[in-house]
Amino acid sequence: MTERPVQRTPNRQLAALITEAGFSNAGLARRVDQLGLEHGLDLRYDKTSVTRWLRGQQPRGTTPALIAEVFTRRLGRRLTALDLGLDACAPVYAGLEFAAGPEEAIDIVSGLWRKDSGSHAELRKIAFTAAGLVVPSRDWLIGRADDRVAREEPAPRVPAQGGPLSSARSAVPAERSAYVPPRPRGQADREAAHKVTGGDIAALRSVGELFRALDDQYGGGHARQALVRYLEHECEPMLRGVYGEQTGRRLFAAAADLTRLVGWTSFDIAAHGLAQRYFVQALRLAQAAADRAYGSYVLVTMSRQAVYLGHGREAVQLARVAQQGVGTGAPPVMQALLHSVEARAHGVLGEVRACTGALVRAERALEAARPGDEVPYWARFFDEAQLADEFGHCHRDLQQFRAAAQHAERSLRLRAPAYARSRLFCRVVLATARLGLGELDQACVLGAEAAGQATEMRSVRALEYVRDFERRLEPYKDAAPVRGYREKVAALG
């Protein structure tokens, strides 16, 4: 018996939108492929593929979401796969949404924690997308704190017949009272039981300090998974618990800080797309906390990641949005931090004048700081050692190697040993500067020291700094100091 061919229904919704957008079949296919590249996907669609979709064939995987995003950009209104007559799938920017309210923000960020705390290795392979930076930073800049974040004690659940409230049930229609929609196992009990206290928030803050110290000393990969599990099992029940307005704001602030930190550790292990999503959600939690200053710090973090990945123009925009968001009333130390981050972005773009101007503003701001100034806890790391580090990186990127060496040496003299990873980065900057000045022997000694330190950490960024230095050594590969350097690194295993 021969199998009958599958009958497909032509996709008139997609056809109408193609006409509205003015796309040809080939043009739509090309745009889907280009958007796929933004997400690290190597797609090979063509006009024939679009013809099949129009005939009713369903594209696989996340492609429906990519197609919807192409039309969203073209038509200027949000469209989903279902609007295109395609099967629903996860949004292409899942995790990059800037939630409309606190409840949605909790749902999005807790979903990330849960997926990240298991064996979902694919979550850590999500690609970074520069396009995903624009909307969240804009929404934060023009948005305001949520009017209300408090969560009340949930109403008591109606027991089964024969229980102490059985007489009360008789006044309620049976078909409406007998059924309670199922919820994830254990979640309802945690929500109902947890009333958030000041001690809970103090614990969150202490955990943040602990994991920050571990990250600085040993790299983001050392305890990242433990932090994610803590967020899932301790922080989420608090966010879904019971609290008033003041406690709620403090809770969201602490959750924002820990979410930014887990994003930072993800960045350090090169899980860039995942890190980006954590940063966006930290930004949204900071808005719920009514903490404008911390939101600017999250944008600073996002700018640093963009610099690292070579997206200089987006990094400049993020730094400037952070500055606009807090205005000129921020403490001098914070102003110095904001200007230095903008300088790094100009440096990676090779914009000498703009970079120098931002560095001068940062230096003047730090000079204006006084011992009695009220400085947010998260900005206290920014001192003379950090500013010298920023100068060193900028001058390296601008190939001003003598200045880069001077500032890197100053940073290493001033920087506390606890900031081991930052010291490693600065040592590689110094090695690169010495190489640029023709001091090959000294460059290789410094590079070997940094390589040895990198083996003691779980930090992909540390390894990539060392590899960048080694790429710069290639023109000198036959020189004796370089051969010696390679032998030392090989001995490290």
Automatic annotation (TrEMBL):
Residues 151-194 are annotated as: Disordered. This is Regulator.
